[in-house]
Amino acid sequence: xxxxxxxxxxxxxxxxxxxxxxxxxxxxxxxxxxxxxxxxxxxxxxxxxxxxxxxxxxxxxxxxxxxxxxxxxxxxxxxxxxxxxxxxxxxxxxxxxxxxxxxxxxxxxxxxxxxxxxxxxxxxxxxxxxxxxxxxxxxxxxxxxxxxxxxxxxxxxxxxxxxxxxxxxxxxxxxxxxxxxxxxxxxxxxxxxxxxxxxxxxxxxxxxxxxxxxxxxxxxxxxxxxxxxxxxxxxxxxxxxxxxxxxxxxxxxxxxxxxxxxxxxxxxxxxxxxxxxxxxxxxxxxxxxxxxxxxxxxxxxxxxxxxxxxxxxxxxxxxxxxxxxxxxxxxxxxxxxxxxxxxxxxxxxxxxxxxxxxxxxxxxxxxxxxxxxxxxx
Length: 377
Known about the structure:
3 helices, 8-stranded parallel barrel, 42% strand, 5-stranded antiparallel beta sheet, 2 domains, alpha/beta
């Protein structure tokens, strides 16, 4: 009996020791886990702060480019006088300190922009940008599809040149991805991308494919300019639902536009809001000669074309992430240019340039294209 009691006591002591060891191991593991978690949170916070600072630095560059476009604060005269400009901008999450120098490397139209972003908790990032004055930004309008961001062409599609064999091109500021291999182009067509393309339609010769090229800037939609030069201003929304309508110069709409019908004449429809095309928008048959009609629709927000709509004209959407959405089986005789081009279904874009002289974006203004970008801190 005494022997059994001693054995039970020894087992209880061993169990107690094992329990203590287990608790110590769990404490060590828990401490290690907490340490790793704290370390991960610390690095995540640092990465977030670093990205915020970098965003502030890039915002400073964007602010200067916008100021140069409108000569805000007489920035152009300051640069012409001293060759330098310095400004600190207050942003929601910190500041951007920007320095601008003219005639970079002896090039008259080149600027060196140094921008330092500083968060409220004193995390810094600095970028160095070389920008070049662009007085002609019409290159954007010389191809069938122009996207200022990476582009995926879903489904099937066709891109054709005009009767002279020009303009049957696709451009993307980023990679071009064909989601299938049922896309048709012509042997005079070109593919331009600042990244790479995952596929090339068999009709396009290899010598017409250009990858990793310099980006092309999109001309700004200057809403104030269009409103001041408009022949007609519509306050609120504009709906044209079938029938015939006349074009004459610039129609400026402060709201959204819903469009379907046959047009007569030449003109631009500029909407401060969104544009939705729900049916055919074509020139009235019987007009004498292609130069007798031309249509441009522009929005800084979005343009959508759906169904089996046929649109004769230039479709343009540009701001930061303005989008043109093509869904169903639309046929565009003109061109599509946007920050983001989204396609679903089977699209056809046949290039046609009939908008010459209509006052496209980029008129009477000088824009600056970033030709070099480098993070230096």
